[in-house]
From TrEMBL:
The keyword Metal-binding is assigned to this record: no
InterPro entries: Kelch-BTB_domain-containing, Kelch-typ_b-propeller, Kelch_1
Name listed for the protein in its UniProt record: Kelch repeat protein
Keyword Amino-acid biosynthesis: no
């Protein structure tokens, strides 16, 4: 049986790293939105297997964002909401570096998405992070954009650049996005 997390989370994120850790990020409990991050070591070299460890928190509270591990050395948390009101969605993107057998020790902010969104799909294709659909607090979205981490820094000192591409044929919220064989597929 797995240990209980320190906080009950709804609309949080979960990602697995190559060194066998599961990271639970953000989320809410209907009263508060979390910035906390917890790491569960399934197995590991310097960590005790089966132990839940707190790690450094996100730069801000986040719920309903999307997580990716695009290059196996960083966790990317994109979009989501920072308040209990759904109109308070974020275009913010945070990146946490993952060192072999060590928890995330630093989060930094990169260029924001063009469109604030939560409940969107997110996938990695050809070393770019794509986001599709979601909800902006007023309506469901059909827009798609991708992040190039190799651009920048911009005038604000932020790395990366988001570029809008062809929209989906219909707006989608709570959409799943997957990349395979050089194509993106949106479901839901």
């Amino acid at each position: 049986m797995l240990p209980s997390m320190a906080e009950c989370r709804s609309a949080g994120g979960l990602v697995s790293t190559p060194d066998g850790c599961l990271y639970a990020l953000g989320g809410h409990n209907s009263l508060a939105i979390y910035a906390s991050v917890e790491c569960f070591a399934r197995y590991g070299r310097s960590r005790t297997p089966g132990r839940l460890e707190p790690t450094i928190s996100l730069p801000g509270n986040r719920r309903a964002g999307r997580l990716l591990l695009p290059d196996f050395s960083s966790i990317t948390n994109n979009g989501g909401g920072s308040g209990m009101i759904t109109q308070n969605n974020s275009s913010a993107v945070s990146v946490g570096r993952v060192a072999q057998s060590l928890p995330v020790s630093l989060w930094f902010t990169v260029s924001p998405m063009q469109t604030p969104r939560c409940r969107h799909g997110s996938a990695v294709l050809q070393q770019h992070i794509f986001v599709a659909g979601g909800y902006n607090g007023l309506s469901f979205l059909d827009s798609v954009e991708y992040f190039d981490p190799n651009v920048g820094p911009d005038s604000r000192g932020l790395l990366g650049q988001w570029t809008v591409v062809t929209s989906m044929n219909v707006p989608r919220s709570r959409v799943a996005l997957v990349a395979t064989a050089g194509h993106l597929y949106a479901i839901g």
